[in-house]
TrEMBL record:
Organism for this UniProt entry: Strix occidentalis caurina
Residue segments, region Disordered: 185-217, 293-312, 365-406, 437-494
Gene3D superfamilies: High mobility group box domain
Keyword Signal tagged: no
Pfam family, one: HMG_box
This protein's name: Transcription factor 7 like 2
Residue ranges with Basic and acidic residues bias: 202-213
SUPFAM superfamilies, per the entry: HMG-box
Domain of life where this protein originates: Eukaryota
UniProt keywords, alphabetically: Activator, DNA-binding, Nucleus, Transcription, Transcription regulation, Wnt signaling pathway
GO biological process: canonical Wnt signaling pathway
Domain HMG box: 217-285
Coarse class of the protein's main subcellular location: nucleus
Family that this chain belongs to: Belongs to the TCF/LEF family.
DNA sequence: TTTGCCGGGTT
DNA sequence: AACCCGGCAAA
């Protein structure tokens, strides 16, 4: 009955023995989650930029008053969870004291997202305050500290209530909204209710149907979303920006500027989040939640224009692609075939996104420099020697070493630049320039550009320092490291 | 507006 | 199998 969460990635050895031991003692059943906790802690230490703030942040976490939610025993879980000196001896069985019903094991870090989570307890105005909210009541945004830091991350990482068992139903009946669960009616069409609620039987019908349908379970947050949650407040504070679009742009840039390790942290958190999600909602699939639109939109038939193909654009991206397709000589197998589904962590970024495999490009031969110098290469699994350009990398071969490669679509525009007289300065001008209205550069100079130099991968740093033509030449690598300006440029070009 | 994830369709 | 498309996740 106990889900074996650990199998997927523990093998990678992401946990130090010590940490593992500790965690296991605390939560014998939950290696994975414990691991996540651990890593989060580590993370915090690693990345917390401003110690002072952070310290204060910790306080609440350590010990929060038995703040029990009046409405439900459910919340007590969180308390249990975070009670330091309370390593439940009975934990393994973890039986609900009241019902006597065994609860599914829950990771230590899942509760934070919840309203009563330690980190946020103090900030909850009223238990009912969050009741009607379809959205997770407590998120980074809720934190006052401009510097959420890792702790915040912890707190915001998980939206799942500890004991939230499968969609069983009964839980929802408690009336306590699950952060990740949104009732369709609530979520949307508030207007509908005022409009024709009275007369239209139709409305009722539809309403009924909606209710009937299972509640909407939100998708788990991905790595970037988690990052956004954590950093948004900070960016807002620094930049005095309000528009999401602008903030997101900055966040996107910063995301790319993150070191591999930092990104890895978020990837791992996201993965755990997903894992937990699946645990809580066994049958859940993204598609189920979006019956109306998700993937069912149309049966699209690719109408292809005779003269035009994707490859064309790819050629821009990477001239090498125009060459004849790879042959077996160059490792024809993509990540999927190479590692299999069970080892997705080893896949390159594009592969994970179901995009074109980066290996493919590289395999093309020599033609291309590693998709992204340095960090991006982390994608390279041990098995592909060619990619091991960066030697130091294996220190952390484990779980997440697949991110930095941002080779997706952004590069396209870049390609254009490469091929035509590149206004290097213009490009560098940071997207801000190209995007007059949207970009906050003016109002928040730092925000836009202040990537932590330390975290910057060499290549990125180089490109920043001397972005002009030279850096442009190495298209792929540049794309990987400094995608932002490009995207903007694209627009202008288009 | 951002990146990542993933189902479904196409090649 | 490989990969593109489109949509969702938060704010």
């Amino acid at each position: 009955m106990i889900p074996d969460l650990s199998s997927p990635y523990l093998p990678n050895g992401s946990l130090s023995p010590t940490a593992r031991t500790y965690l296991q003692m605390k939560w014998p059943l939950l290696d994975v989650q414990a691991g996540s906790l651990q890593s989060r802690q580590a993370l915090k230490d690693a990345r917390s930029p401003s110690p002072a703030h952070i310290v204060s942040n910790k306080v609440p976490v350590v010990q929060h008053p038995h703040h029990v939610h009046p409405l439900t025993p459910l919340i007590t879980y969180s308390n249990e969870h975070f009670t330091p000196g309370n390593p439940p001896p009975h934990l393994p069985a973890d039986v609900d004291p009241k019902t006597g019903i065994p609860r599914p094991p829950h990771p230590p870090d899942i509760s934070p997202y919840y309203p009563l989570s330690p980190g946020t307890v103090g900030q909850i105005p009223h238990p009912l305050g969050w009741q009607g909210q379809p959205v997770y009541p407590i998120t980074t945004g809720g934190f006052r500290h401009p510097y959420p830091t890792a702790l915040t991350v912890n707190a915001s990482m998980s939206r799942f209530p500890p004991h939230m068992v499968p969609p069983h139903h009964s839980l929802h009946t408690t009336g306590i909204p699950h952060p990740a669960i949104v009732t369709p009616t609530v979520k949307q069409e508030s207007s509908q209710s005022d409009v024709g609620s009275l007369h239209s039987s139709k409305h009722q019908d539809s309403k009924k149907e909606e209710e009937k349908k299972k509640p909407h379970i939100k998708k788990p947050l991905n790595a970037f979303m988690l990052y956004m949650k954590e950093m948004r407040a900070k960016v807002v504070a620094e930049c005095t920006l309000k528009e999401s679009a602008a903030i997101n742009q900055i966040l996107g840039r910063r995301w790319h500027a993150l070191s591999r390790e930092e990104q890895a942290k978020y990837y791992e958190l996201a993965r755990k989040e997903r894992q937990l999600h699946m645990q809580l909602y066994p049958g859940w699939s993204a598609r189920d939640n979006y019956v109306g639109s998700y993937g069912k939109k149309k049966k699209r038939k690719r109408d292809k224009q005779p003269g035009e193909t994707n490859e064309h654009s790819e050629c821009f991206l990477n001239p090498c692609l125009s060459l004849p397709p790879i042959t077996d000589a160059n490792t024809p197998k993509k990540c999927r075939a190479l590692f299999g589904l069970d080892r997705q962590s080893l896949w390159c970024k594009p592969c994970r996104r179901k995009k074109k495999c980066v290996r493919y490009i590289q395999g093309e031969g020599s033609c291309v420099s590693p998709p992204s110098s340095d960090g991006s290469l982390l994608d390279s699994p041990p098995s592909s020697p060619a990619m091991l350009a960066s030697p130091s990398r294996d220190s952390k071969p484990q779980t997440e070493q697949t991110q930095p490669l941002s080779l997706s679509l952004k590069p396209d525009p870049l390609a254009h630049l490469v091929m035509m007289p590149p206004p290097s300065s213009l490009v560098l001008a940071e997207s801000a320039a190209s995007k007059p209205g949207a970009l906050p550069a003016a109002s928040c100079p730092n925000g836009a550009l202040d990537h932590p130099p330390a975290a910057l991968p060499p290549a990125a740093a180089a490109s920043l320092a001397q972005p002009s033509t030279s850096s442009l030449h190495s298209h792929s690598s540049l794309a990987g490291t400094q995608p932002q300006p490009l995207s903007l440029v694209t627009k202008s070009l288009e």
